[in-house]
What does this fold into?
Amino acid sequence: MAELPVNPLLAAQGTYPFVRLTQAKQAAAERGIEIIDLGVGEPREATPAFINEALIAALLAEPVSTYPLAVGLPELREAAAAWLHRRFGAQVDPDTEVIPTYGSKEAIFTLAQVLVANGRGDVVAVTTPGYPVPARGAEFAGAEVAELTLTQERGWLPDLDAIPWKRLALLWINSPGNPTGAVAPLPWLAEAAARCREHGVVLASDEAYCELYFGAPPPSALQVGERSGVLAFHTLSKRSSMPGHRSGFVAGDRDLVELLRRFRPSLGTAPQAFVQRASVAAWREEDHVDEARARYAAKRDVLLPALQAAGLEHVGGDASFFLWMRVPDGDDEGLATRWLEHGVVAAPGSYLGPGGEGHLRFALVPTVKACERAAELVARLGT
Ligand SMILES: Cc1ncc(COP(=O)(O)O)c(C=O)c1O
It folds into this structure.
């Protein structure tokens, strides 16, 4: 075939900057450098055994493999709603206000397809530096993307007065934030929801890291008094160390969930029934979440003082498993390259979008022992 037909949106999307980091990491490993990877934000904790036991039991109990329905198992929707009530005091109807998702990434990517009309000039606002998936999904849906640059002065939250409300269809927020770890306080969430309602905009709140906190438990957008126009995205990937299982849910405004119930059967991304049953076990149990939080806290207690002693300033919030640090001379890529030569890998903030320059993101995902070793190294290396 002479030339493949390619969606111009795909052709236009640049190489993910993290590819550069992966190549540099591989090259360093080939030179015999022992790598401690704090650069990639993927949990590397063992999934609690009781969750996998529930998965295996469910798999064996249903020898005939069937297609999972997009609406999910009622038990899973009930477990999710019960967790939202326990954790946030939010009353959510499991039958009409919750729908399971295959992790949260695909649901975040596809939401714009549900809301945006191609050619209408709809705008989707995303925050930067940030998780790139909301913007990529919006582009593929044919929306115009408005980037809202986050700053430390505003607590790494978007300035609600600077949002282009005209033509806006969807506002994405992420609290606790990747990469900043910043938490949106409940009054700010309520204000954001009210402004969205006023302008007929959907507020999509990515709450993937809400269970990883070191201060007060972060609130949910589902706690705002009036929930119309609000959707919250949750996942077991971080909370229950299940990134490979692919299990999450979306909850909120009944009319929006109804749209997802209409859209999602075409996607075919409902989690497998045995994953859904394992997820029921995971949402019902909190001890393993306390334990995970304690492990992340131990890593943070080891690494944060060492990074500060090396000359980096902690400018992020106190949630998520990220440490968001300002580099003294602003050269994030330069310092990342120098430390990589000694095995300590961090993500340059400039890879995470405009506004990220001059910062490094450290993901507390290696073992406590590896974090101790990284702490020794950075204390010795300095900036
Ligand atoms: C901010 C944020 N949201 C959502 C996700 C998606 O996670 P998952 O698809 O595993 O639920 C990630 C994963 O890294 C993330 O960083």
